[in-house]
Amino acid sequence: MLTTILPSCKKFVTVENPPGILTTEKVFADDRSATSATVSIYIDMMNYQFGGDGSFVCFSMTALAGFSGNELQWTQSNVNTPAFQEFTAHDLTPPNPNVAAFWKDGYNYIYRTNAILEGIAASTGMTADGKKLVEGEAKFIRGFCYFYLVNLFGDVPLVLSTNYQANMNMARTPSAMVWEQILNDLKDAKQLLPANYPTPERLRPNRATAGALLARIYLYLGRWAEAEAESDAIITSGVYGATLPAPDLVFKKESIETIWQLQPVRAGINTNEAFFFLTTVDIRPSYEITQNLLSAFEPNDKRKTQWIGFSSPVANPGWAFPAKYKAGTSVTVTEYYIVFRLTEQYLIRAEARAHQGGSKLAQAITDLNTVRSRAGLRAANPADQNAFYLAMEKERQVEFFAEWGHRWLDLKRTNRAESVLKPLSPTNSWRLGSELYPVPSGEIGNNPLLIQNPGY
Fold this sequence. Notes:
Serine Threonine Protein Phosphatase 5, Tetratricopeptide repeat
């Protein structure tokens, strides 16, 4: 059986949504129903963004990894406080429900993509073009999910089928093998997906979407020439604008620099970022920007004035909150949730070029200054590669704050997490192994072959 939860969402796909639970034979009887099964995953990514379910992507990735990266701090005292503060203090425990949700939701989406891949392979009713598109999307989603799982947990079981008996007793797969599978999935997706978007408003991934994630992964793996090539292809395509749009236009649903975005599916809510982050006057934000992040902005940086709100600028100038998305509760949909955007590709290309040295360092600085210019800042001129890397670290901090956990993942991939974050830990609780989240205790209880990460 393939479970699909499909609220009405006509812009995602112009076919009727199937019933809640479908047999695989019916799901893959034709292109329309198979496409609906894929689209249901995007809908769930937006629908289950907060709480016990849905922490894998969207809002919870931003908020919880934002705690880990010292971008955000939780200021309230309620049922969420103990679990949230474990992220802030780098003192996670295996029973933490939000850690468990990352794992559970990631594998839920992976299981569904595996079911889709098996279903289209066996289908006799789908067209060749229909199979090609759905396979490309499924492999993209699977690679996307494994990217976050391997970054959060390290070695994770590499599940590539719906064989429940085999999957429930699977040991953790070495991360190198997981990374290789991610690359294979995304290379396949890039070949299978069309250059044009399957739907208006860039709501389903196209070839460039797979390329954008490939560029990021090559960067994470230190494959500099390949990272440069992937990002360069997107930048020079002309599809995403000849220049970067002004900061106040970046997070609009029609933003030219958007490579992939997810459509809101809850009535009256555009994005959960706006719904949970935005704060009224004289009320302390629940998700407050840390002083460390505030101090990272240079004077006159338009990103600070456009993307940060202050709920009490006179009495409490530190009461700051993320305001990249501004439509908190609105019947009119003006903002979609952006997953990939062009600015990241400029910074990927810059970093990849710098690592190759020689004349490419000057090209890297040009890319860096393209992003700084959009922010209204003067050009940077790092003296050497090491100075460039520090400048890049700071630039990514202020460009991608409160956005998909970039800061946390960046510090981990550059082996800078301990040196940067340990002194900022409020309880001095950073320990060996804090760079990875613990394997949820419930998963270890269900599968004795799973071994806990060191330090937990």
